[in-house]
Amino acid sequence: MGNQAQEQHALVTDFAHSTGYSEALRTFYANIRFQWDNDASRPARARSLLITTPVAYGDYAAVAANLAIVAAQSGAPTILVDADLRSPGFAQRFGLEKTSGLSDLLLDEALTEEKIDEALQSTFVLGLRLLGAGTPGAQVASLLFSPRLEQVVQNLYRCSASTESKNALVIFHSSPVLAGADASLIAAQVEQTALAIIANHTTRTQAIRARQQLQQAHAQLIGVVILNQ
Amino acid sequence: MELRTYWSIIWRRIWVVVLIVGVVALYAGYQYYHLRKTPGALKASSSAITIQVGLQSTTKGDPNNADYVTVSEALADTLTTGPILTSHEFDQAVSDQIGQDMSLIDQRFGANADLGDWHNTGAIGSSLNAVRVHSLVTITTTWATAAGAWAIANAIGEVSSTRLGTFLDYVVTNDVTHASTSGTFEQPAVSARVISSATDPATVAGTASNKVALLIALLLVSLAIAIAVTFLLDYLDDRLRSKEQIMHVLELPVLGDIPRAPTPGKR
């Protein structure tokens, strides 16, 4: 199970299967799937989705982690990428050791598909693997500008679906949009972006600025997920 | 906006309403408590006496009765609308008369009856109200205590019937030696007689009874202000709250609405 000592309310697997929280996550995942199913012209391969928020508040990272769990539990091979290099936490959340991750891959000048595959860690949820944030360094602010980001993302597609599964999914979690360029850089590489709005906290100005920032990065904004803290 | 939206705005900041209305309610309650404790503020007693103002004929006699009636009505009008009833001299005479009437008051209201601040001539003057019909003047006193109201009304009757000419007079021209009160009566002297003695005290609204309505109005106004403040705060609050608001602002569909995570183990 998840590291409950650190994250008491972190993962959906800690809760009963039929709670309103779990059902809301499944509805969220279903709404994302509906959009894919409508896109019949798209070639069969893994999907990629970024979940980010205008500004940090509370445990907003939980929505990406829990969506990945729900997707994996529904039978979709799923990779969860901790792209929040400024304050990573998924490895601890899933009770895994911190090994090489996204930051190490972006720094690797001889990046190969095998190295990416080796960086993926299996979790206690069947079908869900995690690419952690990696070794923290002084260059986190500029790492995502690396041209190798696109290479990592493309290889993750292949890793997520060894068989050409149309259901395979790569979920990215990034730092907040207004905290820097990280979210925009990732949004430019992934297929779809969902903006998490924390009800009663995110302001109208922050939400609009975040949307504008993502649109400047040519992100494909598919919708909003409301988090009630 | 729908009524539910209005209500949700108020309910979100119900503390503002409670705070503002609560503070005003405390103030109103304190004022009401004081009014209740102040004699005559909310409830008072009223007693009235009717006197007839006229002229006493001279020793020489005066056959012109029509003139007497005209002058009497003019004098009654002066007493009713003029400053005599509120003058210090008249009210002091009333106060002195009350002092002399103590045995009568004790007999009527019992020993040590509460007369209120009957030494205060200003209070006596401000408690009086007069109306006139021809030469009949009805003077009503509204006082904090029943015994005091009756005592003042009764004293006014006594002072008027015995000494009204001291306070109310008229002048006849071309006669520098005239003095209606000197005893020579070269012209008719002003006199008065009690037509209806002081009535039994009746309970009437006190001098500050309208303040209760004002305090209630104050509470209602504070409620209106508090509601207005909640709407102002909501207008100034930039935070996104509802699904509809988020959809409207971002022009994006809502894919999920995730509730607060429950405590692990609970359904």
In short:
The complex is a heterodimer of chains A (229) and B (267). By secondary structure, chain A is of the alpha/beta class. Chain A has 9 helices and 7 strands; from the N terminus they run H-E-H-E-H-H-H-E-E-H-H-E-H-E-H-E.
Number of strands of chain B: 6
Q: Report helical residue fraction of chain A.
A: 25-40%
Order of helices and strands of chain A: HEHEHHHEEHHEHEHE
Overall pLDDT metric of chain A: 84
Main β sheet profile of chain A: 7 strands, mixed
Per the principal axes of the C-alpha atoms, what is the gross shape of chain A?
A: globular
Query: Which structural class do the helices and strands of chain A define?
Result: alpha/beta
Can you count the helices of chain B?
A: 9
Order of SSEs of chain B: HHEHHHHEEHEEHHE
Note the gap between the termini of chain B: 35 Å
Proportion of beta-strand residues of chain B: 15-25%
Indicate the radius of gyration of chain B in whole angstroms: 33 Å
Please give a structural write-up.
- The complex is a heterodimer of chains A (229) and B (267).
- Chain A is α/β, with parallel strands linked by helices and 229 residues long.
- Chain A is 37% helix and 17% strand.
- Chain A contains 9 helices and 7 strands; from the N terminus they run αβαβαααββααβαβαβ.
- Chain A has helices at 20-38, 62-73, 90-93, 102-107, 113-119, 140-143, 148-160, 182-187, 204-216, and strands at 47-52, 78-83, 121-122, 128-131, 169-174, 192-198, 221-227.
- In chain A, α1 (20-38) packs across α2.
- The longest helix of chain A is centred in the first third of the chain and has 19 residues, at 20-38.
- Chain A is globular.
- Chain A starts with 19 loop residues before the first helix and ends with a strand.
- The model of chain A is unreliable at 1-9 (pLDDT under 50).
- Chain B is of the alpha+beta class and 267 residues long.
- In chain B, 51% of the residues lie in helices and 17% in strands.
- Chain B has 9 helices and 6 strands; from the N terminus they run ααβααααββαββααβ.
- Chain B has helices at 3-12, 14-37, 65-81, 88-100, 102-109, 121-126, 146-167, 210-236, 243-250; strands spanning 43-56, 128-133, 136-143, 189-196, 202-205, 254-258.
- In chain B, strands 1, 2, 3, 4 and 5 form a 5-stranded antiparallel sheet that branches.
- In chain B, β2 (128-133) and β3 form a beta hairpin.
- The two termini of chain B are 35 Å apart.
- In chain B, 27% of the residues are buried.
- The mean pLDDT of chain B is 85.
- β7 (221-227) of chain A pairs parallel with β6 (254-258) of chain B, so a sheet runs across the interface.
